[in-house]
Design goal:
By secondary structure, the protein is an alpha/beta fold. About 30% of the residues lie in helices and about 25% in strands. The termini are far apart.
């Protein structure tokens, strides 16, 4: 197809909608920012608009039950005529859509697509990234099981890369999905007689449904917290968006008592446990820091971010989880190391680290607000209110 992509896209038939789950509004606070380098003028207005939006109106989460469709690429769903169902477009580029469309048309002509009776779509653009899977795809499978009663339906996930497929499989099993009904699919088309698609949970850096946090609370409930610790979440083995002087930064953090954690080398349960026990978290923007979704409300989180990153994903997670979030925008140096313009090393002088992070966060004598307010003082306040 060489024409406009919009000509290829259709909405699901109204009869396919099987649920509309209402969501409350979310309320966010402007982030605490430190700018070691100025945010570029090209993205500053967009970031300011997002950071300043204190009320995020709730959106209905919609569920569709589609029949006789094809799943291709990272979760694109086409009908029998080769038209793309709009809820599955997500963040795919036009080229990816055209490639998926061509592969589906070829499969229709040849009758070559493998056939599955039914499935729940937990596969979409970004499925090769741990953070995207945990926040955007795992909740779809959870909703299908807990809200729609589809506990025995297969769950379709992306089959690459292997490390993300393994952790996605483990996360789904913790969520109660048996291993035998987790179905990894590649980019080639597969034909589904029945497919359930969940839409409206997220729109990256623009919207995050409160239901996502309900899901992650439920999924992580059975995993015990790890030991209380201040965590340094490293970017290893990746070097994109990492500290240029990472060894020196890591050494200073260890000297301050931070426990170093390389999330890529841990199981899903180990990652959850570590972040549930965290007293504070420090790290560079990246998939490992998605695990702050498992932190307790009030946990101090410091995220070092390239100054040019048009990205508020971690701030949104922190606000949804009610974390004490700080973002440090840093100068970018060296060549581009990934697909995004800000996928470069970031310049943080090791000698400035103590000043940037500040004193270790104060610890409450007991968990929760009760540890910070004495009971006699609270009774005195209540007595004056009642009076």
């Amino acid at each position: 197809m060489s024409g406009p992509i919009e000509e290829l896209i259709v909405h699901p038939p109204e009869a396919a909608r099987i649920a509309a789950i209402p969501c409350p509004n979310s309320y966010y606070a402007y982030p605490r920012l430190t700018c070691l380098a100025p945010v570029p003028d090209a993205i500053r207005p967009t970031l300011e608009s997002l950071w300043s939006a204190s009320i995020h109106p709730g959106r209905d989460v919609l569920a569709y039950r589609l029949t006789d469709v094809y799943v291709a690429e990272e979760g694109l769903v086409f009908d029998g005529a080769g038209q793309l169902l709009s809820p599955t477009r997500t963040y795919h580029t036009d080229d990816q859509i055209r490639r998926g469309h061509a592969s589906v048309l070829a499969a229709i002509a040849a009758g070559s697509a493998p056939v599955l009776d039914r499935g729940v779509l937990a596969k979409s653009r970004g499925a090769d990234n741990y953070g995207h899977f945990i926040v955007e795809m795992l909740p779809r499978a959870w909703i299908a099981r807990t809200r729609l009663g589809l506990a025995d339906w297969p769950v379709l996930i992306f089959d690459e890369p292997e490390a993300v497929r393994q952790v996605a499989t483990a996360a789904l099993q913790v969520a109660g999905v048996p291993a035998e009904v987790i179905v990894p699919l590649g980019r080639a088309p597969a034909f589904l007689r029945e497919l359930v698609v969940i839409d409206g949970l997220t729109w990256h850096s623009l919207y995050l449904s409160p239901i996502v946090m309900q899901c992650l609370d439920a999924v992580s409930a059975a995993i015990e917290s790890g030991p209380q610790a201040d965590l340094y979440a490293t970017r290893r083995p990746s070097r994109t968006r990492d500290f240029a002087a990472e060894p020196a930064i890591a050494a200073r953090l260890r000297a301050r008592g931070y426990r170093e954690i390389e999330a890529a080398g841990l199981s899903f349960a180990e990652q959850v446990a570590a972040f549930k026990g965290a007293q504070s978290v420090v790290g560079c923007m990246g998939a490992a820091l998605t695990n702050i979704v498992f932190c307790r409300p009030g946990t101090e989180v410091v995220v070092f971010t390239p100054c040019g990153a048009a990205e508020v994903f971690f701030w949104m997670i922190a606000e949804a989880r009610r974390l004490r979030y700080r973002e440090i925008r840093c100068a970018e140096i060296g060549p581009q190391l990934g697909p995004l313009p800000w996928d470069r090393l970031i310049d943080v002088p090791p000698a400035a680290l103590d000043r940037l992070i500040g004193a270790p966060p104060a610890r409450a004598a007991e968990p929760g607000w009760a540890g910070r307010v004495s009971l006699p003082a609270l009774r005195s306040v209540l007595a004056r209110v009642r009076g």
